[in-house]
Write a structure and sequence with these properties.
Number of strands: 5
Strand order of the largest sheet: 3-2-1-4-5
CATH topology: Rossmann fold
Largest sheet: 5 strands, parallel
CATH architecture: 3-Layer(aba) Sandwich
Bound molecules: nicotinamide-adenine-dinucleotide
CATH class: Alpha Beta
Number of helices: 8
Radius of gyration: 18 Å
Shape: globular
Strand content: 5-15%
Order of helices and strands: EHEHEHEHEHHHH
């Protein structure tokens, strides 16, 4: 944990959402961002783990809240972002670490519902989270940063391609979606420049157009 805790002190007075923050990578990231001064909204469907993460953060002197959020649900993702804005005054960073794996390993054994659920949690969530996170960041006129955790883009072996097919495929689609949208996010400096120029926009015309 401490190796992740050496983030820059510029995270002070910022707000960070960590989906999948009830455990694993998400919890480690929540603790690291908190140690660097950011206020943390832990979002997960694991209420016990999520509250444990909050206790760990607050026990270490940080500030955190838990918001139960199924990242595949649009209404819950919107409420998650709204909770960051209402509790912390905005949203500066979003770490989207929520994910699920295949329930079975062999493609031919996958149930249709399992396929739909994995796509919803690992891919649809990327769209939903980005949509609402970007809106909050641009709305504040400050810009921000969004990070998605996924598996590597290394192509699976022939055996892996039929044995561990879906979670990997769903996550490998996410970078294409996030790269397209995140490339059009203005930097903090750009956003501030535009805010000061009183254009009423938080980003350039081109990038604003791409983000619609
Ligand atoms: N653990 C690693 O070493 C590692 C390495 C590289 C990449 N990753 C990637 O990082 C991400 C997280 O990995 P992890 O090991 O921390 O996984 P994990 O299973 O420990 O944690 C995932 C979290 O997501 C939550 N979650 C599941 N469904 C959800 C939903 N619908 N809404 C909200 N939360 C939900 C779970 O409750 C859990 O807390 C994955 O995308 C994984 O591929 C992990």
């Amino acid at each position: 944990m401490s190796s992740l805790g050496n983030l820059d002190s510029s995270f002070a007075d910022t707000a960070t959402i960590v989906t999948g923050g009830a455990g694993g990578m998400g919890r480690a990231i929540a603790l690291a961002f908190s140690a660097a001064g950011s206020s943390i909204l832990v979002a997960d469907v694991d209420d016990v783990g999520g509250r444990q993460t909050v206790d760990l953060v607050t026990g270490a002197g940080g500030k955190a809240i838990y918001q139960r959020t199924d990242v595949s649900r649009a209404d819950e993702v919107a409420a998650m972002v709204a909770a960051s804005v209402s509790n912390f005054g905005g949203l500066d960073y979003a770490i989207n670490a929520a994910a699920i794996e295949n329930e079975v390993d062999f493609l031919a054994d996958l149930e249709d519902d399992n396929f739909d659920r994995i796509i919803a949690v690992n891919l649809r969530s990327v769209f939903l989270c980005m949509k609402h996170e970007i809106r909050a960041m641009l709305g504040a006129g400050k810009g921000g940063a969004i990070v998605h955790l996924a598996v590597s883009l290394v192509l699976p072996s022939r055996r892996q391609s039929i044995m561990r097919p879906l979670a990997s495929a769903s996550m490998q689609s996410a970078p294409g979606l996030s790269r397209h949208r995140c490339c059009s996010m203005p930097s903090r400096r750009e956003a501030e420049t535009h805010r000061r120029s009183q254009t009423g926009l938080a980003c350039s015309a081109d990038s604003a157009d791409q983000m619609k």
